[in-house]
Amino acid sequence: MSANLGKIEEAALTLPAQERARLAMDLIKSLDNYDDAEAEELWFQEAERRYQEYKEGKLQGRPANDVYRDASSSRP
Q: What is the spatial distance between Cα 13 and Cα 28, in angstroms, rounded to a whole number?
C-alpha cells in the first residue's frame, strides 16, 4: 500500500458512518465503467458463450435443486 493510500484510508476511517458509506458507494461507482445497456449486453454474451459450451459438451449441467441447496447453504 502506498503512503498516500494509507493516509487517505486513515482519514476516511475517521469520518462518521454515513459519510464513510457515501464515500464507499462513490468509490464503487467509479469502478463501474459500463452503463446498464452495456452490462446487459455483456451478460447476454456470457450466457450465450456458456450455453454454446454446454451444447458442445464442454460444460456439464447440474440439477437446479442442487444449485439452490448449495447457494442457500453458503449464506452467512
A: 16
Q: Which residues neighbour 50 within 8 Å (Cβ) at sequence distance 6 or greater? A: 59
C-alpha distances out from residue 17 to 2, 13, 67, Å: 24, 9, 36
C-alpha cell at 21: 458509506
Indicate the length of the chain as a whole number: 76
Task: Please choose, from the candidates 9, 21, 62, the residue with its C-alpha nearest in 3D space to the C-alpha of residue 1.
Answer: 9
pLDDT tens per residue, range 15-71: 999 999 999 999 988 887 767 788 889 999 999 999 999 999 999 999 999 999 998
pLDDT of the residue at 76: 63
- What the block records as the C-alpha cell of 39 is 452490462
Nearest to 20 by CA among 9, 31, 29, 30: 9
